[in-house]
């Protein structure tokens, strides 16, 4: 939900800036959604790179080399997030992020089923951990809508 809050806040801020300063690109909600997704994935990618051990617990025992996997997904999130900002590749970057979200979904299921701590120091109450699963399809739809 924190990620979703970030997406919405940034998109609405960009939309407001677009209207206040008469910036045509920012007056288009899909463009604002794409830019907000780029910002959030770049931020989350940096988190993966700066603190991989704080996220690797989500996949330990599931796949080999959990720290490397967290670093790798962080690099992908960074590169694909940046790709959302480049018109010639934003469509492909968006599809890359959607595929990445699907690939990372089992880790979020594992956190919920095993009642592990939520990543990033977020609330670890069962309602929150399980609700995170509901937002994964929302993020996929957000990206799909923003690139089409």
Note the main sheet: none
Order of helices and strands: HHHHHH
In terms of per-residue confidence, which ranges show pLDDT below 50 for 5 or more consecutive residues? none
> What share of the residues does DSSP label as strand, in percent?
under 5%
Q: What is the global morphology?
A: globular
- The helix content is over 70%
User: Distance N terminus to C terminus?
Assistant: 24 Å
* Mean model confidence by pLDDT: 95
- Given helix and strand content, the structural type is mainly alpha
Q: What is the number of helical segments per DSSP (H or I, 4+ residues)? A: 6
Give the beta-strand count.
0
Query: If you compute it from the alpha carbons, what radius of gyration comes out, rounded to the nearest whole angstrom?
Result: 16 Å
Describe this protein with a few key phrases:
148 residues, mainly alpha, 0% strand
Structural notes for this entry:
This protein has 148 residues and is an all-alpha fold. Helix content is 74%, strand content 0%. It has six helices and no strands. It has helices at 2-20, 29-50, 53-56, 66-83, 90-113, 126-147.
List the helices and strands and how they pair.
Elements: H1 2-20, H2 29-50, H3 53-56, H4 66-83, H5 90-113, H6 126-147
């Amino acid at each position: 939900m924190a990620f979703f809050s970030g997406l919405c806040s940034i998109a609405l801020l960009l939309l407001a800036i677009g209207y206040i300063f008469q910036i045509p690109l920012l007056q288009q909600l899909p463009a604002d959604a794409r830019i907000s997704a780029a910002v959030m994935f770049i931020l989350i990618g940096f988190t993966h790179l700066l603190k991989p051990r704080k996220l690797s617990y989500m996949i330990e025992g599931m796949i080999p080399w959990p720290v490397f996997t967290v670093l790798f997904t962080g690099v992908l999130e960074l590169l694909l997030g940046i790709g959302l900002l480049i018109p010639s590749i934003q469509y492909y970057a968006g599809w890359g992020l959607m595929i990445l979200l699907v690939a990372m979904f089992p880790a979020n299921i594992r956190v919920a089923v095993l009642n592990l701590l939520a990543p990033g120091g977020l609330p670890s109450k069962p309602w929150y951990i399980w609700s995170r699963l509901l937002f994964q399809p929302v993020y996929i739809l957000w990206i799909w809508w923003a690139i089409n």
